[in-house]
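Q: Trace token order:
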Amino acid sequence: MTRLGLHGRRLSGRRIELGTLFEDVAARGRTTAVHLSRPLDIAPGMGTVLDPRSLARLVRTAAGWFAAAGVEPGDRVAVSKRDHLDLVLLCCAAARLGAVPVPLPASLEPDVLDVLLKRLDPALLVVDAARRAETRGTGFAARRTLVLGHASPSGGEDPSEPPDPSVLSLDDVRGHGPPPPRRPRADDPLVILPTSGTTGVPKLVAHSTRTLLRRLAAFEAQRWPVLGSRPDDVVAASFSFATGRALTWTAAVSALGPAAVVVVTSADWDEARGPLEEHRPTILEAQPSTFVRWRPYARSGAFDRVRLYVSAFDAVHPPTVRAFLAATRHPRPIWVQGWGRTETGPLTFRVLTRRALRTRRGGHPATRDLGRPVPGRTRLRVLDRETLRPVPRGVPGLLVCSTGALCLDYVGERERYLRKRSGRWFVTGDLGVLTRSGRLLLLGREADALPAAGCLEMEDLIEDRLPGVAECVVLGVPGGPAQPVLVVENGPRLDPHRWRDAVSDLPELAEPVLVERERLPRTATGKVRRAALREQLGLPPRTHGTGRWT
């Protein structure tokens, strides 16, 4: 097999294309079994075991639906449905027509979805019946709406009202064959991706074939020693499929062709347990909030063959990493922690081992050290937050990056994009420190800044010192002490003496607020929506950060 070059341009002599991804993989002889924790919503009758050929057929079928609905090359197709791998398949189907897919999490509140659709003006909005019922009567900005599933496309409106001709059911579009695939030019928009929206309405990030597939997916689709999947691996994933990570992960894993892939669509252990225990992955990628949910079951046996854990999307705290590294029987398991943005893809990565979790760098917990920029692909600088001038190594400031995978634009927010970009440099919105050796110590988002420490660092320390704390969120309060919010395992109580001992050397904190895990407002990727949490707790919306760089 032809190896990819440093720029990740080719795999087996062919480029990775989104619209024909599974057709191309099947043509190269890949037979990877894809095991699903539940059947696909768009094809429940196909069961829970699929292969590249069956996935390719589904993509062609869905492309026929979209063509019958009037989608043409260059149109935007927004998809908002329950999280599953079929979000990726529907994106592939739109891309096969030369349209631009836009996956939007079903967890978005209707008013937020309305804002995003007005920015997008999609030719087609694809929703499932549940989403249609939720948003009935909101007047969303889409020229046509396709409702998946068997429910009435009217979504339960008064049957006495005349049907809306702009709303279609699958019965209206079935049986239409797809036209031949169309491939966009390398630098034209390929897909539009939502950011997580932790600080407000998500941004809509436009990526091209070059930035998303050739720079990111193809680079990952190499058989890197230790980090790349092998033909005998079982690769499992549990994260939001309404993300760019879902697209690059699917493309890279499909190209590499491991023995099996396991897709878990929920952090609920009742759903995850069966497929994980049956297939026992050797590589597992999940969003940090899912690892936290599964931590009590780390010793269940489901993780005893894992040699490689991968964490993305959000900060992960030491007790979680430690628990899973201890759960596997592999003699030298590793945990890869990536840091990046929807706009840039991964910028740094760090390999954590059991030994690394027993050490600290300069007093910082091990998980705050995110390693170095990817050699030859990304660069980082730290700027003073006020003057925007570079600061010396070891001084905290605003992180800016340079990467060939930088997105094209923010849809509907061009000025915001230009404010964050200066030539080759882009403001990430994060605060951090570059050490003398060039390693990144991440402190947190600029919008969530604390005056005396990074919020992520304080959360790490609190979780590490109090084993009964499953999650910790620290919110800055100008004019007063920061407010810690804790999810406590095994009951809603916290020993006040242990709390005082744990935080005695930290900046002043208010008395902690204890909440149930389900009460924390989250994004589709499991991140805590800090602005929404502030409002929930009655805290003032103002923070120590400017929020200018979000």
Q: What stands out?
A: Residues 74 and 341 are 25 Å apart (CA to CA). The first helix runs from residue 21 to 27. The radius of gyration is 23 Å.
